[in-house]
């Protein structure tokens, strides 16, 4: 960590520690964009990257100021803790190596997630963040364009050395402040559905338009198939908006189609991405699943050492198989139950958003409220992440973005976090509807029950 990155870190820690909740939230996101994980300081056996100092400051802040308390856990919070606790405990009991790494992942998860649960209080905070985050993205995208035109990554100033460049079809694959182009592209793709949702409401249209352009630029400059597939999922998700009241039927039809393809295909169904993928590594990802199924007896109970995958492929990364699948990564770490808990956690996130969408749709308005657009955008974003998990594992400081977005979902869909709904209702009600009206009272009663 050189003087430039240390100066940025100290400034961001000060904002996180002493600024308002909203500024602290923005400073955490700024740390993801403008700090790197190339340099680390060893503290008690842990690699303390710059972003980890920031997450520690954020966690201390929200706990000291009581902006979040563990007495206020909702269903998703408890499931989140259950999954990461199980993952860590089983790994530590089974493995004789990598304990510090796994413990660090647990600390990252808990500190980041609950920091954002404390900093993002309601829908208004969420909307403010999306609008203001655009300001951080403008210079970041400018730096990416410099990287593309000059083949020089200016974030090397923070890293104290040159950054390796990757080419595809003669074009550079930009990495920005990350170590891998797919991670960079996932950053842009994951915020794209949120800005599309913001753009559906008039007050945020200009910020949303800028956000959409910037997110597409980040995904495009990564020159990677995974983020492009993520963007396609986003487009498909928003195309389903007119059918939002029939999603149960859509899910059943999708499942039936998948079963039909599994019966009709000669190869196993997990080779389906080979026919539709945008990148050149689709076969590797499908074959990885086949190998995992073939060796299921070795890892289903409580995982297995990653070194045991050294003979899975003729080509290896640091002597082991390249595990480009987030579900399988958790499975190898702690067994099949860890994968089931992870899927359960994702399903709970979708269910929470669906329940809150039903509440918002009950508002007496001819047009969908701003909240409905943004909740739908969060659901589309989560669907994109799920698809992305079949082609990549999240690492670098991008895990901060993932936990931030999970915290947004939890906060805005929790059963006791509907404070923003009366405000939405007030904007949506006709002028002759007062707070003493029967309709408005029924909304407040429904909100309090949830």
What does this structure look like?
The chain has 450 residues and is mainly α. The chain has one domain (3-250, 334-417). Helix content is 66%, strand content 3%. Strands 1-2 form a two-stranded antiparallel sheet. Strand 3 (166-168) and strand 4 form a beta hairpin. Helix 1 runs parallel beside helix 3, helix 10 (225-239) packs antiparallel against helix 17 (370-388) and helix 15 packs across helix 16 (336-361). The longest helix has 28 residues, at 123-150.
List keywords for this structure.
450 residues, mainly alpha, two-stranded antiparallel ribbon, two-stranded antiparallel sheet, 20 helices, 3% strand, globular
Q: In this structure, how is the largest beta sheet organized?
A: 2 strands, antiparallel
Number of domains: 1
Please provide the count of β strands. Answer: 4
- Look at the helices and sheets and give the structural class: mainly alpha
Distance between the termini: 47 Å
The whole-number mean of residue pLDDT values reads 85
Helix and strand sequence: HHEEHHHHHEEHHHHHHHHHHHHH
Total count of helical runs of at least 4 residues: 20
Query: What amount of the residues lies in strands?
Result: under 5%
Q: How are strands sequenced across the largest beta sheet? A: 1-2
Shape: globular
Spans of 5+ residues with little confidence (pLDDT < 50)?
A: 416-450
Radius of gyration: 22 Å
Summarize the amount of helix as a percent range. 55-70%
